[in-house]
Each structure stands twice: as C-alpha cells, then as structure tokens.
Amino acid sequence: MNRRQFLHIAAGSAAALARAPRAHAAFAQTQPLRKFAAPLRTLAQMAPAVRLSRTAPPGSTPVDYYEIALRPFTDQLHPDLPPTRLWGYGNRAGGAFKHLGGTIVADAGVAVRIRFFNELPNTHILPVDNTVPGLSAAAAAHVNRAAVHLHGGNVAWPSDGGPHAWFTPRNAATGSSFVRWLPDAAGNPTADFWYPNLQSARLLWFHDHALGNTRLNAYAGLASAYIIRDSIEQSLIADGAIPALEIPVIIQDKVFTSARTADTLSTAGDLWYPRTYDTEFFDLEPGGLPLPPYSLVPEFWGDTMLCNGTVFPFVEVQPRRYRLRILNACNTRFVRLKLVGAQGKVFPDSAEPDVGNAGPALQLIGNEAGFLDGGANPQGVLFSNDRRSRALVLAPAERADVIIDFSDTKPGTYWILHNDAPVPFPGGTPLGDFFPENRRLPTPPSPGYGPNTRTLLQFRVVPPTAADAPAPRNWSLPRMNRLAPLGVLDPPPGIPIRDLTLNEAVDEYGRLSQLLGAVGAGEHGRFGLPYDAAATETPRAGSIEVWRISNLSADAHPIHFHLVNVQVLARQRIHVHQFGVDHFTGTPAFRGRPEPPYPEEMGWKETVRMNPGEATTVIMKFDLPPNPVVPVNGVPTAVAPPASPRTGGHEYVWHCHILEHEEHEMMRPLVVQP
C-alpha cells in the first residue's frame, strides 16, 4: 500500500460512510458547548513571560533574560467545561499559568536568553505510544521529556530545540543532541537558550519538539507566541499604513472528554486524543506486528475550535481598522478563512454563519517570515471574500499578518471568522467537518453549539470611542532581498539543485506512515528514508541551494525548514506514477509548465504548503547566526557553539508540520557544515 486510503479520500461515497457505524469511530466527540460564550483572550491575559533583566555590558550583546517553567496546570477554556488539565509554559517565579502562556515580545537586535525549567510529572495526560520510530529506550522511559523549539528563529543549533535535544526535570536525563554551551558570568557552561533576534518584525512561536512526544506535548499545551518588533514595522504603524490596533489569533482544534468518553486517562473536561489505531478510519497493512495498547495515528483532527486558548470566543471591535496576527497551531488541520455575516442577531442565529453574506476583506501583508515583498505586492494581497475569490489557506504552522477594515460596518453587526478547509487537505472527508448542515455526520451539531470546525471567532462591532485617520494612499511594504529575481521561475544558473520527495509507506506494524526522501538514496517507502538514517542534506554554511521537492503522496504537506527562510520559485505538476522511471537521474516527470508561487508566497517563507502530485521549488541560503558575545569573568567573549555530538555539524531538521506525520517519521536531518 503506497497510496493513501485514509478515510477513503473519495469521502462522498456511500461505501465510505457505511464503514463508520460508530459515532466518529476513532475520535471521541466533545459535548455540545455554546458558541461565542466567552471573550477572546488578549496577550496580556495569556500570562506573558516576565522579563527579569535587560543588560548591555560594554562590548557584549544586549540581552533580555527570562526564566520559564514547563508545568502541569488547569485552565477554564469554556464556561460550560470543568477546568482542563494542561501542560504549558509560564513564569517560574510565580503567577497563574494559562493555556498558551509564556508569550514573549522581543525587540530586533536585542537577544533573548531563556533558562527553561522542566517541571513536568512523569505521567502524561495523553496516551503515550513508545513504538514511535526512532524512539530510544532512554527517551521512552521519560514521558516528561521536552525540547523547546523557536519556530522560525535563526538561532544556533544548540538553541534550536531539535528532537534529540530533549531534557527532563533538573536535566537528569537528556537526549543525544542536548549540550550545555553558553557560559555564565564565571565561564561555567549552561543549558540556557539564546535567541539573537537578528530578524525582521514577524510572529514566531515556540513549541515542544521532543523525540516521540511532539504531537502529544504540543497538543497538551506546550506552545506559545513570540513576536519580534523592529523599526520598519513601527514606522509603518506611526504613518498609519498599518493599524496600531492588533489582535493575535492562535487557532487550535481540540476534542474534550465528556462523561461518556471518560476513561482511566481522563475525566470530563480533559483533552482527548486517540487511543487506538482504528481500522474504521485508517488502513492497516496485514501481517504486521501486533499493535501497541496506545497507538499513534496517521493524522488527528479535533471537533472544537479554540482561539487564544478559548473555545469559540468572541471579540469586540469598533468600526476601525485592525491588524490580526494569525497562527494555525493545529496538529493536522488546515484552515481556509473568510469573514462572513451571522444569520441573525439573536442566539443561536448569531452564532451561525451566513456564507452568502461576505464580510470585510482580508488584506494579507505578511506571513511567518515577516512582511510580503513590497516589490511584488506593495500593499499586500487582498482576499475579497466574495464567492468567486480564493480564500486564505493556512497550513499547520503557517502565519498570516492581516488587516481588516470594519469602518463601514454598523455597530451591532456580527461577523464570523469562517473555515471550510477539508480534512485531510485537500481531499477531505465529511466525517472531519463539523457543522449543523453536514448530514453525513452520524450526529450533526445543533445550531449555536459545538462540535463545530467551521466557526472560529465572532467579531461584535460596538460603537466607536475614536476614529481612525485614513491610511495613506501610496504606502508600500518593504522590498525583499531576493535570492532569485521577481518573476523568475527557473533556478538561477550555477546553483545546485537537490531533488527530494514526500512519500507514503507502512511501518512494521502495518500502520500508514510518511517519509521524506532524497532521490536515489533509498528504496524504503518509494525513496523515503527514516529520520535516523545518515544525513543526506549537508550544505555548507553560507551556501545557496535550490530544493525541488516532489509530493508523491495524496496529502498536502506543510514542510518546515529549521534555521533558514526560503523563497518559493515555482510549482509544477508531475506524473507521480512515472516518477520511479526517472528517479535515478534525479529528473521528475513534469506535466505542463511551471507555475509562479501564490501571491501570498511573494515573501520569505519557512513553512511551505506542498500539494499532492506537484513539485515545489524553493531556494535558500544557509546563513548561521553570529556567535553571541557575553561577559565571562568581566571580559566580553564570543562563544561559538560546539559541533553536534550526533552529526558533527550544526544540527537542524526539516520536516512536515502535520505533527503526526513528523512523528512517524516525516523528518530528516539538516546538518550545516562549517
């Protein structure tokens, strides 16, 4: 079985539905919860990290210092739910822990130094599967291992938080890539994390990346926002081009345990995650080893949407311009976003979308790597929100910097941030799409209540307290320093091209798995290679490369690159079934002409959606960050990171950011050589 049968991608067939006699089969169902019953949390309400000091010793790098703990706690995520047990980040010195807490706002050019304290218990709140590929006996023995990854950060490899850089409480046990490298004032090495912030303004995030537990730890709550500000952004705000009114929106999908689905792992109100590899949903190759009691699954999608850690929240806005900083922090679920009206002004109609009533446009001005290229899109990309326009798609880990103008909206109006992306994306099945009109669900939700995956956030327009000055007519976003000229679809001459693949296979248990491959480097899973196989992507520091990545699977995959940002050059259809004929020459069998990147990709990227049956070509430069300069015995000292004890170079990874894919094991080393 090399082609995905997951959920019977032809989901409209009667046969697919006939194989789902139980309510949502592998996935439990959250109890009905009122939509838009609680306000959206602000950053200040999400227990931001408290800066303990800012220092700039002469000759040394200016630095902000934080101490952040990883702890279990409970949080009220909906008024009708009991407090939910979570794991998350927060201030070690005290104060309440909140879901998605520990947020940081940093200044470009001022480094952030963080000492993370793992204070997690050795019993997980979710089902643990120790048969995850690559999981060592030592790692399997420590279910509270953690590895903190600053997603999108250009950081030295020991601070990147890769899968093998995990650590347990008091650092009593550590992974094979965990090193102490930053000196304290006396020169003793520490396990502090150093983020130089030599990047433009952007929304980053940090989340867990521990080998074998990434999907569980991030879902349990080990994720938070990290914002970098710079002078260019501040000038755009001061000029009125970008609104000063800013609303971060972190999107997640969850399932909550009800009294009906409570078991030995959870009680009502707790997070629920699949326990079994349910063959009603997932193909299982016969003849494999017996499945473990708790098995990882190929993909996970929730039935209940959260924004900023609150289930189905609302936010009040005035008839003014707002800036939304959106992050898709779901494990698997893509979102396809538009603003639409509500069906009425009285509950439950006020909680249900009127998809024929298009709301204000989404003006996209940036993505996960900062602003879009002002040379290509001077004022961003407009998603007009009518039925003919293309909606804004965000894969897991992608971000969107969006302006919404409510100026023409009367107070008392309701708008709903609406999602209609299928899961899996782009094929989809109705069994993962929760809304009242979906009659293919065994039990469709009632209007005004969850489970629901189509309504994320309600905007309530209230009377203004101030008026906006009109935005200047001729403002533009900054121009991008490109590795290839605007409009060029072919790789620049003389730049080496790596042909790589995205593949499907099965593991020794017969479970569907996903792999990355270097063309001609292996035969396992149609050129796919396990994560712990010897590194094949080993560029030199400072070098430029083109990667042409052919998706031989039936899913879209959000491919995330640690260390580097990439420029998307082109997309081109391929003959998937003919690929094997040409793979030894490294030449995909192309169909038609190359197509330019999407308008919203006209900027730097570090997470790129790669569509099935398509080769996506990206170009990147492997620049390592400068070494930090810190005081040692009063003397400013440049500190170089050591070589990785595992790989001998600067150890990073590239992987799919569908967390279940990454874990099983769609991830490969990216080892930058000195």
List keywords for this structure.
674 residues, mainly beta, eight-stranded mixed beta sheet, seven-stranded mixed beta sheet, 6 helices, 5% helix, globular
Task: Describe the 3D structure.
Helices cover 5% and strands 32% of the residues. The chain is mainly beta. Residues 1-26 have low confidence and may be disordered. Strands 13, 14, 15, 17, 20, 21, 22 and 24 form an 8-stranded mixed β-sheet that branches. Strands 1, 16, 18, 19, 23, 25 and 26 form a 7-stranded mixed β-sheet that branches. The longest helix has 8 residues, at 231-238. A hairpin with a 2-residue loop joins strand 35 (629-632) and strand 36.
End-to-end C-alpha gap: 41 Å
Largest sheet: 8 strands, mixed
Helix content: under 10%
> Regions with pLDDT < 50 over 5+ consecutive residues?
1-26
Strand tally: 38
Instruction: Give the amount of beta strand, in percent.
Output: 25-35%
Q: Please, what is the oligomeric state?
A: single chain
**Mean pLDDT score, rounded?**
91
Q: Structural class of the helices, strands and pairings?
A: mainly beta
Shape assignment: globular
